[in-house]
Amino acid sequence: MTPQVWLITGTSSGFGAAFVHSLLARGDKVIATARTLSKISNLKDAGASILQLDVTSSPKALQKTVQEAVAIYGRIDVLVNNAGYSHFGTFEDATPKDWQSQFDTNLFGAINVSRAFLPHFRANKAGVIVFIGSAAALCGMPTLALYCGSKWALTGAAESLNEEVKSFGIHTLIVQPGFFRTELLNANNTTYVETKISDYEPLVNGNFEIFRGANGVQPGDPRKGAERIIDTVKGEGLAKGKKLPQTLYLGSDVIDQAKKRAEATLELLKEWEEIGSNLDV
């Protein structure tokens, strides 16, 4: 197979860095991006091209970045929207600015970067856009309303985009990872907002302790996770002979969660079907 050209956002650590190393090992070409180039100089040493990219930049600035990226190898085959961070705090404590900031990176960043690349993919009549979602897109979680909301919205946007562009030879893949040992929960990628409302203190203190304690001991291996995503996009390994899915649940924990969610939905429909039916004019 001809080597593919991948552009990945948020490559300074975690899944992003794992993608770069795995792809280079397979002989593909990689454009690694980050807000601060000095944080990914090691990836250049490993053989990747590097490019400064802040997903919260203006559409005009992102278009310029796309031109720079395409000029490196002449094309982009796969875009991976990986950049993101997590906000912890209650729904009531969160300010409009908190919501905007979370959505600017996790949702609008991925949307705007993808929009900037779509003309290139349409011209080539080919391309895959990967969105890194989260298990948080499967159910609401206390103190994670902002993060869950951004990932739920990202899922809907990705699925809708796929329906619009599949006739052009472009496909989307939304990956819903469980708990992987990335840097998402460290101090640089997580915002913890202590509650100002005493009623929430037991909940907030308990949840914050759990998530802070989970940093560095998550069960998932990012390198293995990245390899499975790459296999899925390329149709190799365990994905050989399979059609690219719209959604990939990644990790045994999130697969169990998805199954329970599906079973609970079926039970809900069964119990409330009579109430929700026979309402046509």
From TrEMBL:
Family of the protein in this entry: Belongs to the short-chain dehydrogenases/reductases (SDR) family.
Q: Which InterPro entries match?
A: NAD(P)-bd_dom_sf, SDR_fam, SDR_oxidoreductase
Q: What Gene3D superfamilies does the record point to? A: NAD(P)-binding Rossmann-like Domain
What are the GO MF terms of this UniProt record? oxidoreductase activity
Q: Which UniProt keywords apply?
A: Oxidoreductase
The organism's taxonomic lineage, starting at the top: Eukaryota, Fungi, Dikarya, Ascomycota, Pezizomycotina
Mind telling me which residue stretches traverse the membrane in this protein?
none
Protein known as = Oxidoreductase,short chain dehydrogenase-like protein
Q: Keyword Oxidoreductase: yes or no?
A: yes
